[in-house]
Amino acid sequence: MTRFKISTLAVLTLAAAQPALAQDPETCMTVRFSDPGWTDISATNGVAATLLEALGYTADIPTLSVPVGYEALKNGQTDLFLGNWMPAQQEFRTDLDAAGTVVELVQNLEGAKFTLAVNKAGAEAGVADFADLDARKDEFDGKIFGIEPGAPANQSIQAMIEADDFGLGDWTLVESGEQAMMAQVRRNDAAGMPTVFLAWAPHPMNEAVEITYLSGGDAQFGPNYGGASVHTLARKEWVETCPNVAKLFSQLVFDVPMENVLMGKILDDGMAAQEAASEWLADNPAALDAWLDGVTTLDGQPGLAAVRAAIDG
Fold first, then answer.
1. Cα distance between residue 136 and residue 125, in whole Å
2. Average pLDDT over the chain, rounded to an integer
3. Mind telling me which SUPFAM superfamilies this protein's record contains (predicted)?
4. Cα(243)–Cα(79) distance, rounded to whole angstroms?
5. Can you say whether the dihedral through the CA atoms of 185, 63, 81, 301 is positive or negative?
6. Own/partner pairs, 186-193, CB within 8 angstroms, 24+ separation
7. pLDDT for 8 beyond 90
8. How many other CB atoms are found less than 10 A from the CB of residue 1?
């Protein structure tokens, strides 16, 4: 265990041992954490912001691309990031670990996956593996649909194209945001056009489109169809200064079914992230017990009671 992880553990253990009226200083009121524009992170950020506001804190959540978000965390412009997908973002983690100013608070999701997939027409064309794609290039129009520019997954796809892996050297990566990508996939799906795109779980796309995740991409996305976990990172100095709210984030963990529901509310029902979070929390109040164990409001009052009162309205 590294010195920084030991320090973080000590801080959080100390926070757990504090009496009920121990509280963070007023300087901790505003909690800054970025959103890369991915619905799964918007959903979890929405849950976090809802809890923070009920506890007397303020959430400041700028939308920053993945590379910019990591730089902001490294340089102290933000305090937290709930969207460290591993191993896809290992390069960024390595950089942060070398800087020594950021620590991991918790693995907030397991059972995620992230790799290339095809729609129903793509599967019916006989594509089940990365190696099947190039023989069907014309049917796919030679395009791989990705997410926003600068995302590590896009970089992996571009590197694969540049290296001519699987004979894909003359294919094109089409970069766009998550929602624009899925709109294109839905259009192609309705037209019966084979389509290959970045797909992942949790995400309501798994319900909206018949998806076949492709095997063979272990070198690009990792084994088990890009099997992934998501982690919460925080500035070491912020954890030490704001142990109460840091304790909240060290206990804030999610699961795939929960995130699928939240993301569906946002993408399909048009809810804002905090609106979706409030509705989900009202329907699932038991989740609060573990999240808020030993956590107080900013002014030192019992946190669980405050959040329940805010959700009950």
1. 8
2. 92
3. Periplasmic binding protein-like II
4. 13
5. negative
6. 188/119, 188/121, 189/119, 189/120, 189/121, 192/121, 193/121, 193/139, 193/141
7. no
8. 7
DSSP code at position 112: E
* Distance (Å, whole) CA 60 – CA 64: 12
Strand residue runs (E) in 88-195? 102-118, 143-145, 172-174
Mean pLDDT of 217-231: 92
What single letter denotes the amino acid at residue 149?
P
Indicate whether 18 pLDDT > 60.
no
Q: Are strands 172-174 and 143-145 parallel, antiparallel or unpaired?
A: parallel
The helix/strand count (H/E) of the chain reads as: 16, 9
pLDDT classification of 22: cutoffs 50, 70, 90? low
Neighbours of 86 (CB within 10 A): 16
Angle at CA of residue 151, ends 48 and 134, nearest 5°: 135
Measured in degrees and rounded to the nearest 5, phi and psi for residue 259 equal -70, -35
The mean pLDDT of 66-81, rounded to a whole number, is 96
Decide: 192 and 65 in contact? Cβ < 8 Å: no
Ordered DSSP codes for 207-229: HHS--EEPBS-HHHH-HHHH-EE
Domains delineated in the chain: 3-111+227-312 (3.40.190.10), 113-226 (3.40.190.100)
DSSP 33: B
132, 129, 145: which is closest to 193 by C-alpha?
145
Token couple for 34? 């970025």
Residue with tokens 């993408």: 267
CB atoms within 10 A of CB 242: 26
